[in-house]
Description:
Elements: E1 31-38, H1 44-56, E2 60-71, E3 74-82, H2 104-115, E4 119-125, H3 133-139, E5 156-160, H4 167-176, E6 181-185, H5 194-207, E7 215-219, H6 225-230, E8 235-237, H7 243-257
Parallel strand pairs: 4-5, 4-6, 6-7, 7-8
Antiparallel strand pairs: 1-3, 2-3
Helix pairs in contact: 2-7, 4-5
Amino acid sequence: MSQSQTAKYEPWNERDFTHVRPYGDTFDDGVVQLSFSLPVPFGEEAAEAARQLVVKMGLTEPAVVHQHDLGENFTFVILYAKTQAAVDYTKIKVAKVSGARMSFYEVNEYIKEQIGRKITIIGACTGTDAHTVGIDAIMNMKGYNGEYGLERYPMVEAYNLGSQVENEEMVAKAIEYNADAILVSQVVTQKDVHIPNLSQLVELLQAEGLREKLILVCGGPRISHELALELGYDAGFGPGTLAPDVASYVVQEMVKRGLK
Length: 260
């Protein structure tokens, strides 16, 4: 991209945060990138169908920059278009997980000093979910991205129950291990199957009188802290979460709630 094509923007302290729009080539031009698949054969008709669809979305000046034949009369399309819509950034409020993020060493020292015993955490992909990448990154000893998993924490008894664990089994294991916290990973979210599955676990824990006795956390690509709270969880973690993020929250919340 040439210098003349690069975005020209106002200094940070001079921007109008009450009227924020996306930009592509120049600041505030409203350019967005979209990609989607259409159930039509690859060709110019597919490109035109994509352009018309984007216009119906309320966007203008649609331009197809790439299309790919997916086979069996399906086409993948990438477009640029413009929007006049803007948001007031100054009024945005987002629910966030509270507490300071601590390191591996700080978490273990915190447990020693503030709780005085090892804590027990169980985790799994529940329901029909068989994708363990997320829960393994948090639980497994080797961890992920340079951070040890909870199995490596000397002050944590971590039990990774794996995939496709029924909610009833999670509750039974929580009782068996006298768990202080439960971590639920949900990667498979087609048709929002994760929502009733996550809700059911809360209901089962409540029925057993366990909900208020432990920390309940969920995470996954489509999990936000706000959604987690709505479903009855204590916290929700999205993509990029590492073991210290979860561990820091769990131990601080235990102390806050007097779960020693």
